[in-house]
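Chapter summary example: a protein plus magnesium ion.
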Amino acid sequence: MKNLSFSMQKGESISIQGASGCGKSTLLHLIGALDKPDKGEIILNYDNQVLKINELTNLQSDQFRQKDVGMIFQKFNLIDCLSVRDNIYLPAKINKANQQSIDHTYIHSLVESLGISKHVDKLPNQLSGGEQQRVAIARALSHKPKLLLADEPTGNLDEENSDKVSKLLVDTCRTHNTLLIMVTHSQQVAQLTERRLRISQGNIVESDNVEVK
Ligand SMILES: Nc1ncnc2c1ncn2[C@@H]1O[C@H](COP(=O)(O)OP(=O)(O)OP(=O)(O)O)[C@@H](O)[C@H]1O
Ligand SMILES: [Mg+2]
């Protein structure tokens, strides 16, 4: 990918589609300061600040990742030795150390809406793939991030759950004015976001303007 650039309005949701291997996960990891580019620059203009992701010190990128970003990984990345509850509370607890209070009522409602209440005392590997995916979603939202990066958040869910969970994601982001960047292979899920982008030949384009192959 080269000279890739896009902008979003406050509270906006976008979906990103593109062929397998075109770099969607890599793009999310770069935006979230979870990865660094081999060359070039990643510049994020947001909240009246300009972040040059590849020039952030460890402390700055840790703070950005922990406080401002929520990440739903394609492969979940739940912590196996922590209970589902502790996984979900992890970002909220880390931010408590940064003086941000934990909203237990909100987290409880997330857990309820995602249908995972009965699993909170279990370990992640005692859950099915789809249940783990929903835990990963609750974890990514528990600290009310400013930017939610969701990598195939419904990839392991059946149609009914996919529909429910993707609507919950979009609605929760709207309620909290969270920017949502969601990678999805599902046309139906992509329709829920305000804009649809597509990575095509190393560039990013509004997909409503291009022919979908
Ligand atoms: N850690 C890595 N080091 C080097 N190359 C990588 C690494 N991770 C992925 N790649 C390569 O970078 C390219 C983009 O991978 P990426 O995972 O971003 O694709 P993707 O669009 O998310 O695909 P999918 O839809 O299958 O999830 C692929 O060609 C992949 O083989
Ligand atoms: Mg991917």
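Key point: Confidence is low (pLDDT under 50) at residues 209-213.
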